[in-house]
Specification:
- This protein is of the alpha+beta class and 164 residues long.
- The protein has five helices and five strands, in the order βααββββααα.
- The chain has helices at 16-24, 27-41, 99-108, 117-123, 127-130, and strands at 11-14, 48-49, 58-61, 68-76, 85-94.
Length: 164
């Protein structure tokens, strides 16, 4: 930092696994994440609030494609720290398949909430689809149902006039 920059508003801490995430990220993602974190620490940027199990945490979109996310919390700093509040980084991971959020929940020891009965029923696979049924034979077409042929004349004994 140069002398013209303001003093950071918050301290910064990392979950050790989040620091590993950051170090293992591609170089451009790492640079962008560090730039975003500097803005957060200087109170120039605040990430979007997360909900449900991760309520109280925030997310940052690291890259312009929104493929990478950073999950952090703003929390009281430990006693004796220079700042009263710190930014604690929990995870820096790809957004694909909710990887960053699953990882953050796992690192925080948050188990997934059980889903409701209706939600479970809506997502469940019908047991009838799993049962093996013998194939039902298709009925053969009638012999006169060949395309292009006329239908046969009715074969009834009720012809006009007396039968000879």
């Amino acid at each position: 930092m140069s002398g013209s920059e303001a003093r950071p508003a918050f301290g910064l801490s990392f979950d050790p696994r989040a620091l590993t995430d950051l170090l293992q990220a591609p170089g451009d993602i790492r640079d962008l994440a560090l730039d975003q974190l500097q803005k957060v620490v200087n109170a120039q940027l605040f990430g979007g609030k997360l909900t449900e199990e991760l309520a109280g945490y925030r997310k940052l979109y690291v890259d312009h494609r929104n493929a990478w996310r950073l999950v952090y919390a703003q929390r009281p700093a430990p006693p004796g720290a220079v700042h009263r509040t710190e930014i604690h980084v929990v995870a820096v991971r790809p957004r694909a398949r909710h990887d960053v959020y699953k990882t953050a929940r796992a690192r925080l020891g948050i188990a997934r909430r059980p889903i409701g009965v209706r939600t479970h029923a809506a997502r469940a696979r019908s047991p009838q689809l799993d049962a093996q049924r013998p194939p039902v034979p298709k009925p053969a077409p009638p012999p006169y149902a060949m395309p292009g042929l006329p239908h046969p004349a009715p074969t009834s004994n009720s012809l006009k006039g007396p039968a000879r």
